[in-house]
Prior knowledge:
Blueprint lengths: L1 H4 L4 H23 L6 H25 L11 H30 L6 H30 L6 E6 L3 H12 L5 E7 L9 E2 L2 E4 L4 H7 L4 E4 L6 H13 L3 E4 L17 E2 L15 H8 L3 E5 L4 H10 L6 E6 L2 H14 L5 E5 L5 H11 L3 E4 L6 H5 L2 H21 L4 E7 L8 H17 L5 E7 L1 E3 L5 H10 L4 E3 L5 E2 L1 E3 H14 L5 E4 L5 E2 H11 L10 E3 L18 E4 L5 E5 L5 H13 L6 H11 L16
Parallel strand pairs: 1-2, 1-5, 2-4, 5-6, 8-9, 8-11, 9-10, 11-12, 12-13, 13-18, 14-17, 15-20
Antiparallel strand pairs: 3-4, 6-7, 16-19, 18-22, 21-22
Amino acid sequence: MLAFKNNTPRWLIILIDIALVMFSVLMAFLLRFNFQIEEKWLKLLPEIIGYFILIRGISFLIARTYAGIIRYTSTQDIFRLFLVMISGSIIFITTSLVTYYFIDEFYLIPFSVIIIEFFTSTLLLAAFRIIIKITYLELLNPAKGKTNVIIFGAGEAGIFTKRALERDAGTKYKIFAFIDDDHNKIGKSIEGVKVFNSNKLDHLLKTNNINQLILSIQKLAPNKKKKVIEVCLEYDVKVLNVPPFVKWINGELSFNQIREINIEDLLGREIIKLNKEKISKDLVGKNILITGAAGSIGSEIVRQISCFSPNKIILVDQAESPLFQLELECLEKFPGIDFEVIIADICSKERMEKLFKLFSPQIVFHAAAYKHVPMMETNPSEALRTNIEGTKIIADLSVKYKAEKFIMISTDKAVNPTSVMGASKRIAEIYTQSLNKKANTRFTTTRFGNVLGSNGSVILLFKKQIEKGGPVTITHPDITRFFMTIPEACQLVLAASAISNGGEIFIFDMGESVKIIDLAKKMIRLSGLELGKDIQIKYTGLRPGEKLYEELLNDQENTLPTQHPQIMIAKVNEYDPEIVKKDITKLIVRFGKQDNFSIVKKMKKIVPEYKSRNSEFEKLDG
Length: 622
């Protein structure tokens, strides 16, 4: 074993290669003369063998076939060896032709001997290297100690995945099976590994000690992927994912690139189909303002809009470091786009007016807002100032400077609000809707639930808690939420913007609500940990303003379909613009008094369905 861990000396490799060439020459002569070599050839045999050794030895030295580490022999090494052997055989053929035509019409080496020696030597030299490699791998990683792996997908990506695992000598993996739905492959073997139908996955995991499953199929349907992952989690099988081909290094998959799957893969949501032509028509050549640009949603909107050739993108946020990082990313990924990066508070009317006057944005995506329910429950004046007054300032300036569209990013927490944050967003919705009746600017609201991976997302919280060893904290065992990914949410925002006529509240198909406890358990399993043994779940109780169940529509609302299957229009109560303006002006004035109860009381008058929950403001509902 120790001998295999040390590199074989180069001189020994040369000697073994030459010995194999000598053996091949002898075998070639014996086969050529049916094991009865003629006397004239027997006399010449020592010279011919010496000539073979000379030419082969020199070619080995020039090509440095001895320099590679034998136990890491690759297909490139074998191919190089093949070329070296061909070049040597060409020299032998040339020598024989010269002796025949220019010396004494006598072939120095029979052509049949040259051909037999070429194939025999090539085979033996390659076999020597492969046997050493296999022996080393088997000694280093005996089959009993290997990790059993199933590769889902028996196509090219699956084969490359298998080779990447086998090439990595520092790992202990055994490819147990391929899984595929292609009936032309099922039941057959690929490189010695049998291909099974995907409906056999449960049986394979149940009856065998499988440690990992690697998803190699790039375009696996989301529902299919979710089903596969959940079956693996049931048997505590770790699931890994092969990255897209474009991310492979120099077109070759590295084992280190195979990553664990994301919790997003368990949503099982279908890929959004966008009308890119319509979105492009809406955005190309426009000056576009994005508030809250450094946030999770705002930054993704920036990335997606940049693909539609706008004239200028104005990025506004008061978070200096995240905005700086976004600027660096944009300059690197979208060098042809004109970005204007502005650190500013949307509540500063003078600063915002200067911005509108300078850049005349034609489309405004308003993503800036305070979103944390418990934080706003204890800071109602800030929810008022940013979510309501800040929205009013940007909306009014959009009208004043004749912006074509204003798209507000809202939340499902604005439906039957139970928190200050939800109520503040609903009031902002009401104000922008009221402006749509008397302004040329088209005001649109998009309303959706939680986004996975956003700042403050429960997913990020769970990841940090799991990394620390727990406990994972959940407010209530029955709490549920709607989820979608950040790119998905932003794609739907762009799609809604493109089809809006103004005044709509678009709601997105959020799929089925997810129990947070189930989400936590799956994340723990995906991390390779066991609930109750490696990590605990702790219930902390509902936080102020928090709901058990989120809603996307008010009880009195219903929806209308749109041309996009995942976007609907909510039919909501209409408000008198003058009354709305008067009520919100009176509400904003209350900021100066810093009286939280006074602020919340006025908010409840504007939004009658606002009923506080788990909050000190419940007494105002009496």
